[in-house]
Amino acid sequence: MTRWDEKQARLRAFLTRGAVGDLTVALLRRLAKMSPCIFCKIIRGESPGAILYRDEQVTAFRDAHPAAPVHILIVPNRHIVSVNELEPGDEPLIGHLFSVAKQLAQQEGVQESGYRLIVNTGAHGGQTVPHLHLHLIGGQRMRHPMG
Ligand code: 5GP
Ligand code: ZN
User: Fold this and answer.
1) What torsion do the CA atoms of 16, 77, 69, 30 make, to the nearest 10 degrees?
2) Which of 129, 131, 134, 144 should be mutated for ligand 1, with most atoms under 8 A from CB?
3) Ligand nearest to the CA of 33
4) Using CB atoms within 10 A of its CB, is residue 145 exposed (0-12), middle (13-18) or buried (19+)?
5) Which atom of ligand 1 lies nearest, measured to the CA of 120?
6) Cβ(117) – ligand 1 distance below 6 Å
7) How far apart are CA 52 and CA 74, in angstroms?
8) Does 133 participate in catalysis according to the annotation?
9) β-pair type (134-138, 115-118)
10) 127 Cβ below 6 A of ligand 1
11) CB under 8 A, 24+ apart: contacts of 90-97
């Protein structure tokens, strides 16, 4: 880790914890609501970023601010805001998100070492981009406890 990486990690920790974290999440949510959906733009190929996987249902790309050496977002191609908007007919889609996550974990070489799959939902869940996404995070032992 370079000094710059360490500084970034410290800033990220500061901005995502406690009361400051609540303010950061609220600000990012407000910004996301004001602008066109950034994940829809990535899915449509209108925003730069390497697409790691794409099929008719889902797209996967690297997180712009990785929390670990491997940090991939797997998103439905359809604009679904969050888990709250899911319908019974979406069950195969959600199963597919996990199948793609497993495939990417293998591809990224973290299947055996282990990884974390996270779906943040709403304000208390820390969701900042209102387009449902599954985080695949790995490549290091997870340090932060949940909650
Ligand atoms: P959430 O906080 O909603 O669970 O996760 C949103 C994630 O999207 C964050 O980890 C953030 O770093 C990532 N992100 C936000 N904007 C962009 C972007 O424009 N491109 C990419 N690749 N990731 C983004
Ligand atoms: Zn969207």
Assistant:
1) -20
2) 129
3) 2
4) exposed
5) 4
6) no
7) 9
8) yes
9) antiparallel
10) yes
11) 93/57, 93/58, 96/57, 96/58, 97/58, 97/134
State which amino acid sits at residue 81.
V
Give the pLDDT confidence of 97-118 residue by residue, as tens digits: 999 999 999 999 999 999 999 9
Q: Which two tokens stand for residue 114?
A: 């282990």
Tell me the per-residue pLDDT of 6-62, one tens digit each, with 9 for 90 and over.
Answer: 777 777 777 777 888 888 777 776 776 666 899 999 999 998 778 999 999 999 999
CB atoms within 10 A of CB 72: 25
Per the listing, tokens 């730069």 go with 48
**Which tokens go with 21?**
């974290």
Up-side HSE of residue 43: CA atoms within 13 Å toward CB? 21
